Amino acid sequence: MEDRVFTTVNGKPAKSLYVSLIADLLDKANLREGTQGVPRSTYCFRHTYATLRLQDGVDVYFLAEQMGTSVQMIEQHYGHVNTVKHADRVLQGMTG
Hints:
Blueprint: H1 17-28, H2 44-55, H3 60-67, H4 71-85, H5 87-91
Helix pairs in contact: 2-4, 3-4
């Protein structure tokens, strides 16, 4: 079986097919740089994933296990997500 070498659109060897694909997609969508001008990496999707899962109501213990981190770390970095999600419950019964 022969080894396959994946290349970028410029013909240069890709570090990995996944990284090359994501970088190309971010470039084409004009999203390669974040709001602070820092280039996005595949790691930024970890934050997005955690935020969306918590917004969907996934249990923090399950998410921590799935992501290979602690519940404390999830709560430290994403505790605001549940607060925003449940704001309507906090405001129930308030007038004005």
